[in-house]
Automatic annotation (TrEMBL), chain B:
PANTHER family the UniProt entry points to: ABC TRANSPORTER PERMEASE PROTEIN MG189-RELATED-RELATED, LACTOSE TRANSPORT SYSTEM PERMEASE PROTEIN LACG
Record family assignment: Belongs to the binding-protein-dependent transport system permease family.
Family matches, as Gene3D superfamilies: MetI-like (1.10.3720.10)
Membrane topology, record value: Multi-pass membrane protein
UniProt keyword Phosphoprotein present: no
Organism annotation: Thermocatellispora tengchongensis
The protein's name in its UniProt record: ABC-type glycerol-3-phosphate transport system permease component
Location (main, coarse): membrane
Domain ABC transmembrane type-1: 79-270
From TrEMBL, chain C:
Protein name: Putative chitobiose transport system substrate-binding protein
Lineage: Bacteria, Bacillati, Actinomycetota, Actinomycetes, Streptosporangiales
A Pfam family that the UniProt record links to this protein: SBP_bac_1
Annotated source species: Thermocatellispora tengchongensis
Gene3D superfamilies in alphabetical order: Periplasmic binding protein-like II (3.40.190.10)
Length: 306, 285, 437
């Protein structure tokens, strides 16, 4: 696994400088051709159309008219859209934090050797393999007022009244987050275990000889060693959380009272259910601009720290 | 698979071990709870789908549901389609990403930062926002009638995930490796295929398993783009069993289990690349 | 017929984005193709693409058999059948197909999406294809036919329908001291029975989910069917449902959810979640089409299933039971629209065969008279109840329903009074209705 190292090329030795520059530019772009073709044809190109749609009243069916920035103006006062942005933020932050942090100690335990480690490693990965649409429906029933979760919590004496996981506006978004984390946990565990597999065991021995306890070893050896994996996990979790759609589609439909509707779901609903592609496209453009702005800010801050 | 390198025989004391096993046991129960319910529902013959608490071990297990769904017209076809689509997507995605990841990780060329950021931007485009123009573009290329119509766009939509992973991986390889190769007169393709690719097996496996998982469970795009239902994937096909008029949960559970098995197998096969000691220390920075 | 062509030209005048537009159009993304309306009929081999929703699993022999018979009777015509697994996804797939110029010839629609396609003139009105549309209309049950009439023109051939009925648990009725042979006949009785069931047995009296894509339990039925409030003003331009009767009725619902005699799943569940609560015997009544009995039979123990019984839908102030309908429409892009219409009409004659597998309501008057429908309680409730579609025939119907459902949720959760919720919903409806589209 990649380690804590920026992805800069090897330092250029003065001798080969000119030769390397020519080689790098020629080969760099040559190697980029397949990827650029794919991204250009199947993501950027449709995305440009989306940008175009956002300045029209396109309904998906009939000729559109140019409406200038009308769609964007309408977004300014659209409280449902604002709510979905907030929900997207909550889901993204919560999912990213939970998925980046929770699997870390588990990976450490499994790596350092506990009984049944292979069993745990495999079992914790299993939710990843079940098709989302099925596991989400299964969860929908587990989370019902009369469902297994309430039954279990009541039996354990943890709650008196069943909790309306999906129909209480306070809980609905957390139920969505919980199911996402449940499903994806194994992926992040895997990334960390892969990272730990490339960590020299001597580091742990050295820490142990120094008399470091597990907590200190965890923070002084594991976390720094896994920095690359942690950054990778953050990126994957962030991207996946921004795109959350399936779980909302199955579990809550965005309700109740829009409490669990994120922007991706709202865009889908606006475009494909309300036939307002122009408006939905404007939402997508605003969302993308916000996210890219945040990513740039994050990169700049991260760059400054180094 | 042996114990991880350098792990002391008693990394945790007996009390810590017990606590950890209890915690992980609870986590494991939470992880497989809904899946146990699915598996147990799939081997019951009728009824009792929703009772609380459910009867996890059926009195009279049967494989009839599996036989039923497997023999339904097209289910085997969906299954084969899913395998082709997922394998094809992984191949296309990881190959393209490996080339670019190698370039971004090792070469210093003009525009690389912009290229990387632009690509990263594509990862956060919400899919519903581009679905309609993507459909039109894919159709214009004549891909609505074969599985490439799923493979190519899906590989593209998840491309940067792999590019990101592999850029880090190639960038993290020791510089001496490259210098030695260059002194030997090694061309970039040779450097990539002979020297470096074997050293990034773990990241390649990570990308492969991520993309495989994403592709395997994707249902909206394969449904929208394929005209002919003999080209649907299993995630689309299993929704036929979830229809309102007919949803028999014994059948849904059986097909869900069938649909999950290949990913389990892929995981079990690929996991040795993650955990084997051979890799330890080889991809170091 | 290139539906998006004019867009391109207009976009090109868009100044700042001309470059982008040029790029886009140069690569042909906007280039849709479609058949002409005059290419209808004709000789030579004809190929029809036929889309249904959700009929593959369990009904394949029926569909394929019916197609084969048609092909035999019409040499030269071949029918390619595509079944879409899910209602919501039909819409996505259809939109994509139309944008890409790859439309089917006959497509299964619902009254929920039909108005948008009619308003955008992307489907044929029947009178353009049939020499005598009135004669066609006369074959169908008027209520079902009218569901496809928009602005005075029919746009759809009804396929099959369903009528909401009362499905209840006789055992829970007995436990609560209610007579299982006398299920509640109107909404006052429903509420009274529900309160009693909750008080006596602890489970909820009924579940009525607010989900919008299914045949029962949607807010418009609560307003128009149960409380008798008209959804729209006579001119169709403003919301008219915020009547005192509707407020009083919704207050009952809010009280029911709060006190537990209405199942809380109603607030954010879908139809199948409601059915599941019934299957678990955690609620005593549900208002769904009789097809749900087949599902209950598959997913509950035989001894549980025996407790369920079907009865007529409780009478509401709207005067008829809420209905749901599957229709066929002919997209403008069809190359053989006349043949397509012929096929659609033929297919609606085959529904008796479908009804024998699942209790659904046939659209043809003649089929509905078949003695089969008198053979069991679940088929009787189909043909003996009067049906109405409490849906506004408006292109923005999906958006209107979302607005209504959101406000209903607020009311049922006690976040707003019933009156405030209905007033807010009406305001939102007026905004959507005036926005045109």
């Amino acid at each position: 696994m990649a380690q804590a190292r920026r992805a800069e090329p090897a330092p250029v030795r003065a001798a080969g400088r000119a030769w390397r520059e020519v080689r790098d530019t020629r080969w760099g772009w040559l190697l980029a051709v397949p990827a650029v073709g794919l991204i250009g044809g199947f993501v950027l190109y449709p995305a440009l159309n989306t940008l175009l749609f956002s300045f029209t009243d396109f309904n998906g069916l009939t000729p559109a008219s140019w409406v200038g920035t009308r769609q964007y103006q309408a977004l300014v006062s659209d409280s449902v859209f604002h709510r979905t942005l907030l929900n997207s933020g909550v889901i993204t932050v919560a999912v990213t934090v939970l998925l980046v942090c929770l699997p870390l100690p588990v990976a450490y335990w499994i790596h350092r050797g506990i009984p049944f480690r292979r069993f745990f490693r495999t079992v914790l990965y299993l939710p990843v393999v079940v098709p989302i649409i099925v596991s989400s429906v299964a969860w929908k029933w587990m989370l019902d007022d009369n469902g297994l979760l309430n039954h279990g919590l009541t039996a354990l004496g943890l709650i008196d009244e069943p909790i309306s996981w999906l129909s209480d506006p306070g809980w609905a978004i957390w139920s969505v987050i919980g199911v996402i984390v449940w499903r994806a946990f194994g992926i992040y565990l895997l990334i960390y275990l892969a990272g730990l597999a490339t960590t020299p065991g001597e580091l742990f021995e050295a820490a142990s000889i120094d008399g470091a306890g597990h907590v200190r070893t965890f923070f002084s050896v594991v976390v720094p060693q896994l920095r690359g994996s942690i950054v990778l996990s953050s990126v994957i979790a962030f991207v996946a959380a921004m795109r959350t759609f399936d779980e909302i589609y199955v579990l809550t439909g965005g309700g109740p009272v829009n409490a669990s509707k994120n922007t991706a779901y709202h865009i889908w609903e606006t475009a494909f259910s309300y036939f307002k592609f122009g408006y939905g496209s404007a939402m997508a453009v605003v969302l993308l601009a916000l996210v890219l702005g945040l990513v740039m800010l994050g990169l700049r801050l991260a760059g400054r720290r180094r | 698979m042996s114990a991880p390198a350098g792990t002391g025989r008693a990394a945790f004391g007996p009390v810590s071990r017990a606590v950890i096993v209890v915690i992980l046991g609870a986590a494991a129960l939470l992880a497989v709870g809904p899946l146990l319910w699915l598996v147990s529902t799939s081997v019951k013959d009728r009824g009792d789908v929703f009772s609380v608490p459910p009867e996890i071990i059926p009195a009279d297990p049967t494989l009839d549901n599996y036989a039923y769904v497997w023999n339904q017209a097209d289910v085997q076809q969906y299954f084969a389609n899913s395998l082709i689509v997922s394998a094809g997507t992984v191949l296309l995605n990881v190959s393209a990403a490996a080339l670019l990841g190698f370039a971004l990780g090792r070469f210093r060329f003009k525009g690389r930062r912009l290229l990387f950021l632009l690509g990263l931007g594509t990862m956060v485009v919400p899919f519903p926002a581009i679905m309609l123009p993507l459909f039109v573009a894919t159709k214009e290329m004549g891909l609505t009638d074969n599985l490439l119509g799923i493979i190519v766009p899906t590989a593209a939509l998840n491309l940067w995930l792999s590019v990101y992973i592999l850029r880090e991986a190639f960038g993290g390889l020791p510089d001496e490796l490259e210098e030695a190769a260059v002194i030997d007169g090694c061309s970039p393709p040779r450097l990539l295929f002979r020297v470096m690719l074997p050293l990034v097996k773990a990241p390649l496996a990570t990308s492969a398993i991520l993309v495989f998982t994403l592709t395997w469970s994707d249902f909206l795009w394969p449904l929208v783009i394929m005209r002919d239902h003999t080209r649907f994937t299993i995630s689309v096909g299993l929704q036929y069993f979830m229809s309102t008029l007919t949803s028999n949960w014994h059948h849904i559970a059986a097909i869900a289990v069938i649909a999950s098995l290949p990913v389990v197998v892929i995981f079990l096969v690929l996991q040795r690349y993650f955990f084997s000691d051979v890799l330890a220390g080889s991809a170091k920075g | 017929m290139d539906p998006i062509q004019p867009t391109r030209r207009r976009l090109l005048t868009g100044g700042a984005l001309a470059l982008v537009a040029g790029l886009v159009s140069a690569c042909g993304v906007f280039g849709g193709t479609g058949g002409g309306p005059d290419s209808a009929g004709g000789s030579g081999p004809v190929s029809l693409e036929f889309w249904t929703i959700n009929l593959k699993e369990g009904y394949t022999p029926y569909i394929e058999g019916a197609i084969r018979r048609y092909e035999q009777d019409h040499p030269g015509v071949t029918v390619k059948w595509v079944d879409i697994p899910d209602f919501e996804q039909t819409q996505s797939k259809l939109l994509a197909a139309i944008s890409g110029g790859a439309t089917p010839d006959v497509v299964n629609m619902t009254p929920f999406i039909l108005p948008k396609f009619a308003a955008t003139n992307t489907i044929y009105p029947i009178d353009e294809l049939a020499p005598d549309p009135a004669a066609v209309a006369a074959e169908y049950t008027p209520g079902l036919w009218d569901a496809g009439v928009i602005g005075g023109k029919a746009y759809a051939i009804p396929f099959y329908g369903s009528v909401s009925a009362l499905i209840y648990n006789t055992e829970l009725f007995r436990e609560a001291g209610l007579d299982p042979d006398k299920p509640p006949a109107d909404w006052d009785e429903v509420f009274a029975a529900a309160k009693r069931i909750h008080a006596e047995t602890g489970v909820s009296g009924f579940v009525q989910t607010l989900d919008d894509f299914n045949d029962a339990g949607n807010p418009s039925d609560i307003l128009a069917g149960q409380a008798g409030a008209p959804l729209l003003s006579p001119d169709g331009k403003t919301a008219a449902f915020a009547t005192p009767e509707a407020v009083a009725h919704l207050e009952q619902y809010a009280a029911g959810v709060k006190d537990g005699w209405i199942e809380r799943t109603s607030v954010n569940g879908g139809v199948m979640d409601g059915a599941k609560v019934l299957a678990q015997e955690k609620t005593a009544m549900v208002f769904l089409g009789p097809w749900i009995l087949r599902w209950l039979e598959d997913n509950t123990e035989p001894e549980t299933f025996e407790k369920f019984r079907v009865a007529a839908h409780p009478e509401g102030a709207g005067g008829a039971a809420n209905g749901f309908l599957q229709q066929f429409a002919i997209p403008r892009a069809s190359k053989n629209p006349k043949q397509a219409l012929d096929f659609a009409r033929y297919f609606s004659t085959t529904t008796l065969e479908l009804a024998k597998q699942a209790p659904v309501l046939p659209a043809l008057t003649a089929t509905a008279k078949d003695p089969y429908f008198q053979s069991s309680p679940e088929t009787k409730v189909l043909v003996e109840q009067e049906v109405k579609f409490y849906w506004p025939k408006h292109p923005a119907v999906a958006e209107l329903f979302t607005a209504l459902r959101t406000e209903f949720q607020a009311a049922l959760l006690g976040r707003k009074t019933a009156k405030a919720a209905l007033d807010d919903a009406a305001r939102e409806w007026n905004r959507i209705l005036s926005a045109g589209q």
